[in-house]
Write a structure and sequence with these properties.
The complex is a heterodimer of chains A (542) and B (345). By secondary structure, chain A is an all-alpha fold. Chain A has 23 helices and 2 strands. In chain A, 80% of the residues lie in helices and 1% in strands. In chain A, α1 runs antiparallel to α15. The chains are: A mainly alpha (542), B alpha/beta (345).
Chain lengths: 542, 345
Amino acid sequence: MKNSLNRWLLLSLVITLLMTTPIWVLFSFIFEPTNENWLHLSETLLPEYIVNSLWLMFGVAIGTLLFGVSSAWLVSQYQFFGRSFFQWALLLPLALPAYIIAYTYTGLLEFEGPVQTYLRSIFSVASINTWFPEIRSLGGAVLMFSLVLYPYVYLLARSSFANNGSQAMEVSRTLGAGPFKGFFLVALPMARPAIIAGLTLALMETLADFGTVQYFGVPTFTTGIYRTWTGFGDTTTSAHLSLILLAFVATVMLLELWSRRQARYFNSNKKPQDQTLTPLKGRQNLVAFLVCLLPVLLGFLIPAAQLLYWSIATAEEGLNSEFYTLVWNSFSLAFISAIIVLFIALTLAYLKRINQHPLANISTRIATLGYAIPGTVMAIAVMIPLTWLDNSIDEWMQSNFGISTGLLLSGTLIALVFAYTLRFLSVSLQTIDSGLEQIKPTMDDSARTLGASRFKILKEVHIPLLKSSIITAFLLVFVEVLKELPTTLILRPFNFNTLSVRAYEMAADERLADSGLPALLIVLTGLIPVIILSKMIGKKHA
Amino acid sequence: MMKWNKPFTYLASSIIGISLSVPVNLYAADEVNVYSARKEQLIKPLLDEFTRESGIEVNLITSKADALLKRLQTEGKNTPADILITTDAGRLHRAKESGVLQSAITQALKNKVPVNLQDKDGYWLGLTTRSRVIVYAKDRVKPSELSTYEDLVDPKWKKRICIRSSNNIYNQSLVSSMIAHQGKEKTEQWAKGLVSNFARKPKGGDRDQIKAVAAGQCDIAIVNTYYLGQMINGKDQKQKDAASKVAVFWPNQNDRGAHINVSGIAITKASKNKDNALKLIDFLLSKDAQVWYAKVNNEYPVIKNAELSDTLKSWGDFKSDALNLTKLGELNAEAVRIMDRAGWR
């Protein structure tokens, strides 16, 4: 048995090593000496990058927690008007890429937009300027990110509340605690690992974003990395900036790890029991309705309406056979990537559980760093080792057999899928991990005493119990890949276009209306998994 | 160990599945492979027309210029790309410096394009030009108040100028041209003066600056000509209305002329289809192709005698800066540093 354990550990290390190639590529730049651009940056913009990134993280943390935890709690515990709608509708903003919601709100709220123009027709120009908030600002960016990223917190918090909440609340109620006390003292601490896992995803995605902060004119690490690369043509300094960004991410991860150490709760019940929802009446009913409506309205209904409006205006030209190819490309790419990522995440999460070896634990952590690496940096960091491998194979084949193999991997979809895997492994792993943590280890021990092999435990005990986590993980990655832009743009093969690339090219050319149709389709396609997801959860906790 | 096989079979078969879905026509005989920083809508129709006329297949990847350049560099001699298209001269210069291009432009092609719009060693050619000009609110600014880029630091423009972020390559190129003409110190003073006249923090794209002028948030903006052209000729009524409230002013007409940049083309060092690549360049410099650019994207043709669109005609003739565009590439990093120090975000 000892032998097989080592084999597991080895496998886990090998996967991690492979998954982190781009990070090692980045680290290799540490040994490059800093140049005058670095000096220039540290004198001018670096402090601003750091301060802005910190504020952004802080704001998004508050925003996603407020939207995500409150709605998750209400939906999982109470019966109120619209609950069954909100149960799935709260996930809708997940389908919107942050840069697209940023475009739509800018269109609505900027100085020239319909809202301010209308207000100006009522009040004087000067008075509006003094109080109307500027959407393209740090605060605006915080709001945009919070609106599209809170579903991570909501999704993970809700399943935790649903699994543990009601029983714990019953107990706390019998002990005489009111609903608020019960929430803060019992349910919230129990759901903490799940909430923090969702929050970590949201923060990592915030740090990796380029499109939104660029459009809003908020200088952060990602805009700095891009600017150093394009403006100075200086890859070394942008790699150095990326490393500082990674240090930020590592800090977030350590915090998460620390938070999980602090508290690991296992629900000792074998099966989540049927929930009993407390009905809400009168004003409470209305408040619950409004609390859930707000994020759906701001995070989905309003921007989707704007996109729909733009789409209708351009549908005649936009809807052709080429467009269906885009849909097919996006869909199949997302599907294949999500399957592969899921498989690797399951392997790693499971290896970590059975190894209980600090090395396995750390290596799993490192494997998920990719999520916070901006897509552009990730694409380059994938391109470098893959083309190196291709060129080496080509050279070897040339000198030994006189055959040129050209670029086997780097110019194909394999490069793209590899990059997606590195980038989104974290999404999958966090979900599987937090699901796995709710299955108590004693269950493994019992199965082991009964002579079940580890694989059999995985197949017959964990996977059935993990089913909802597995589907969630698959769907989250599916939607992520669908929305993903920078990596796709940089690594795609010849004549291969996706919806997000089309939406971006239109938007980058400042043809927002023309980007409406592909953007809307990303959203609509993203809805399919969201609906499946909610159906599934609905069945379980109806 | 046997139990491992099943999942690995899934993984292996999905990888094979992906590989099979890669188009195999990459190895077709009569083809040319293009890496383009021009967006698909602004290049594909012309490439399709080229295929119809010549029978040569064109394979296309569009992306950002710097990413394409990086891809060319890492792919090295195995790159499938024959052609690189960018939307500014600075990137072409950078590509030349990094050794991924070849000096393959024939004399016949060179003769079609003005000397300052091409590389002196035959590495690249401009395909279209665009100018970065001043647009002003017709109702609040008289054209007689405007004169040069240099004049924009005058205190009379305090809180009246809109311009996008210094991350933008067109601003970097404009500042590079200032350095080329005025030197570093004067340009830095100019940049500081300009920043102190900003009506708001730089944000959004060029169209946003035009919209801000139309809405009264600022009185003048510095933008590329074709953005205004697209707003005038687009379908969005609000943008049309905004565009109708502003007019183009050609700066520096009494001295060096208005700043221009090109979208340009080059042949890669590792090109395996050089003849086809040259045929494509020849096609893109044909009268029809040049007129198409003028009509569809309101860019100025580089060849003589190509007809302008009505919008371009309405803006009138102008004197353009004859600076060799190679300078824009050489001075780009210095320009970024100057803008950083000036607080131009």
